[in-house]
Each structure stands twice: as structure tokens, then as C-alpha cells.
Write a structure and sequence with these properties.
Elements lengths: L1 E8 L5 H21 L3 E8 L5 E9 L3 H10 L1 H4 L3 E9 L3 H7 L1
Antiparallel strand pairs: 1-3, 1-4, 2-3
């Protein structure tokens, strides 16, 4: 099942520092998920000044249970980066799926 995850960073003065502190761990997890076909697409959400303020990911997990298990160990969650998370089931078109695998 495919899911779109929107993770929005905190808006406090330390939010960007928290993001940068765990960013390499977050990217390493993303690389593993991309290699096994779970991560289909990802992007940083930027503000008007091109500062990272969140993340958008499209993931393919067998169920919401597995998605929630990933969230339990995702560095942007455990590192208190994402303060608001929105999850929606989605269906990605074939051309995108074929290009990502």
C-alpha cells in the first residue's frame, strides 16, 4: 500500500538545528528504503527563503502497521524534527513506479 507522508518541522528557533543534527541518519534510512523499493519519492519542503521546513515522502509498505513501525525509528521523528505528520494513502502512477525501481 502506498502512502504520502508530510512531516512538518517545529517552528521554534532550534528546529533547523535539530533537522541538521539527524539529517545524515535520515538520508541513510532513506537510501536503504529506496534500495529495497519502499521509498518511491522524497523531497524537502522549503519556505520562501529556501530553508528546509519539512519533508514529503511517498512510500510503499505492505500496510499501515509497517509504516507506523518505520515512523517509530525514523530519525526525524526520534530526533524531534517533525512536529506535525500527515499521512494519506495514495496510488502512484505506473510511470513513476517504473522509474523508481
Amino acid at each position: 500500500m502506498q502512502f504520502m507522508v508530510l512531516g512538518y518541522d517545529g517552528k521554534d528557533d532550534d528546529a533547523l538545528d535539530r533537522r541538521l543534527a539527524v539529517r545524515e541518519q535520515h538520508l541513510a534510512v532513506g537510501d536503504r528504503l529506496a534500495a529495497d523499493g519502499t521509498l518511491l519519492f522524497a523531497a524537502a519542503i522549503l519556505d520562501a527563503n529556501a530553508t528546509m521546513i519539512g519533508s514529503m515522502l511517498v512510500l510503499d509498505f505492505p500496510s499501515r502497521v509497517e509504516l507506523d513501525a518505520w515512523l517509530d525509528v525514523e530519525p526525524y521523528v526520534t530526533g524531534d524534527v517533525w512536529r506535525q505528520i500527515e499521512i494519506s494513502p495514495v496510488r502512484v502512477g505506473r510511470s513513476v513506479i517504473g522509474a523508481s525501481r
